[in-house]
Automatic annotation (TrEMBL):
This is Cupin 2 conserved barrel domain-containing protein. Gene3D superfamilies: Jelly Rolls (2.60.120.10). InterPro entries: OryJ/VirC-like, RmlC-like_jellyroll, RmlC_Cupin_sf. Residues 49-78 are annotated as: Disordered. It comes from Cylindrobasidium torrendii FP15055 ss-10. It comes from the Eukaryota.
Amino acid sequence: MALPEAQNIRRVITGHDAQGVANIQIDQPLEWTELPQFSAKGSAVWVVDDGLPTNDNNSNEDGARRPLDPGNLTPKDGPGAFLNATRLAPGGTTAMHRTSSQDYNILTQGELVLVMEDGSETHLRTPGDSVVMRGGLHAWKNPSQTQWAQWVTVLVSAKPVVIEGKTLDPMVKS
């Protein structure tokens, strides 16, 4: 029997009309992309890849236009930000991975376990539980066998971590 997925997330994007009046430009549910390498589904809610501070006059561009794939987990080279949503199936585990970004992860549904490179695990149980990831090698796992886990992440581009002169580059372990 297939288990029901997590509740969908709605994406509301504001903008301005030709007279400068603020309005709603986009109001729609997220479209999910299978990420088989991570045993998850992802959706780009909004991407800023033209530098920071961003340009609020980009009203003709949909910031979720960039396709989502494991090689596209962070903003492109240079300053940028990425608002992403992720769903992890019951019992699912992502690949260990590291990005050159500072990530603000917020649990929205279900439970998640953060698995760090040193083997330590942190269990997130309550919607709103948050993790700030600063370039660490990590994975996520869903401890539930019956409920999807869902979280949103704001990734802000960052210089890679350097330890004793060695750069810890972005990576995904298969």
